[in-house]
Write a structure and sequence with these properties.
The protein has 353 residues and is α/β, with parallel strands linked by helices. The protein has a single domain, classed as Aldolase class I (TIM Barrel, Alpha-Beta Barrel). Helices cover 36% and strands 16% of the residues. Helix 9 crosses helix 11. The longest helix is centred in the middle third of the chain and has 16 residues. It is globular. The two termini are 35 Å apart.
Length: 353
């Protein structure tokens, strides 16, 4: 982290977290934030569900909800980025305040509730963007007031799918009432069947991933793995935020919402490893939850992930973290005798089972 970035973070941390979030996006759009550019090497290059990634370190959904800083983010050292979540119609989300820093825990709690400007506005921005150096995906959500939430995901994909490189079905946010009920096998199978029918009509057959919760038990994970394999999904993102509050120290630890950041690392990595065991390499997995270093990125890969995503750690370490993790991962792979990311995938899965 440069002195300028450190100073900028210190200023942002004096502000309300949601206002700081918005200002960080404005800084990116205005060219005020440091951009690392493309970070890659023969060792880091990954093929994920047919997409060529310069490195396996991605940006998780939730940071750029409305796709306003895509150009800058694709030049920030990430190997791929995900924007959104987008819902068919614009919605305000839950009342403020709805974002809390848990500094002592290197974590955050949010209960945004899919606040976004709606799929049509986001689709227009994605359509107008210049081609960038890394794949850009969209997280698909459902409106809180919808009478058919399963259909919402297909609607967003129909509008935005022609303008992205991949899409992620998000049925695992804890901040929209009863959304997680769609993770049940019957509901999930019907939902994904509708999404895949829309994908078949897109100009390009983009990969479609499913993002799951970290709070599922073994039987629930097995059911999801089966549905994912039978519906033709391209992969699984493990995981979203958790409802657990175990071991937290910060004053905001009892706030409602999803917990992200360092406390999620172990829980999400165990879910990832179990999914890797269940799917036996038949589906690529993306590891999310608590990644803030090259060592943690490699741990996710060794547990079964073909790529990783981060977000909350940037609150504490800045946008330069993406490049730092990617370069550190390149070094660690070399030190451990791996000539590629693919060679390391699942190599220490048993550690987490």
């Amino acid at each position: 982290m440069t002195p300028l970035e450190r100073f900028g973070l210190s200023l942002l941390h004096r502000l309300d977290p949601e206002r700081a979030h918005g200002l960080s996006l404005s800084a990116l759009r205005s060219g005020l934030a440091p951009l690392a550019g493309l970070v890659t090497s023969p060792r880091l290059a990954v093929t994920l569900a047919g997409m060529a990634l310069p490195n396996p370190v991605g940006l998780a959904a939730g940071y750029d909800k409305n796709a306003i800083a895509v150009s800058a983010l694709t030049r920030s050292g990430f190997g791929f980025i995900e924007v959104g979540a987008a819902t068919p119609f614009a919605q305000e989300g839950n009342p403020r305040p709805r974002l809390y820093r848990l500094t002592a825990d290197r974590a955050a709690i949010n209960r945004f509730g899919f606040n976004n400007e709606g799929a049509e506005v986001i689709a227009a921005r994605l359509r107008a963007r210049a081609p960038g150096p890394v794949p850009v995906g969209l997280n698909l959500g459902a409106n809180k007031s919808s009478t058919d939430r399963a259909a919402d995901f297909a609607k967003v994909l129909a509008l935005c799918g022609p303008h992205v490189d991949f899409a992620t079905v998000n049925v695992s946010s804890p901040n929209t009432e009863k959304l997680r009920d769609l993770q049940g096998p019957a509901a999930l199978s019907a939902l994904l069947t509708g999404v895949m029918e829309v994908r078949a009509r897109l100009p390009r057959q983009i990969p479609v991933f499913l993002k799951i919760a970290p709070d599922l038990n073994g039987d629930e994970l097995a059911a999801i793995a089966e549905v994912a394999l039978t519906t033709g999904l391209s992969g699984i993102v493990a995981t979203n935020t958790t409802l657990s509050r175990e071991g937290l120290q910060s004053a905001h630890r009892d706030q409602a919402g999803g917990l992200s950041g360092a406390p999620l690392f172990e829980k999400s990595t165990r879910v990832l490893a179990e999914l890797s065991r269940l799917t036996e390499g038949r589906l690529p997995l993306i590891g999310v939850g608590g990644v803030s270093s090259a060592e943690e990125a490699l741990a996710k890969i060794e547990a079964g992930a073909s790529a990783v995503q981060l977000y909350t750690a940037m609150v504490y370490k800045g946008i330069s973290l993406a490049a730092e993790v990617a370069r550190g991962l390149d070094r660690l792979l070399a030190e451990r005798g791996f000539d590629s990311v693919a060679a390391a995938v699942g190599s220490r899965r048993e550690r987490w089972l």
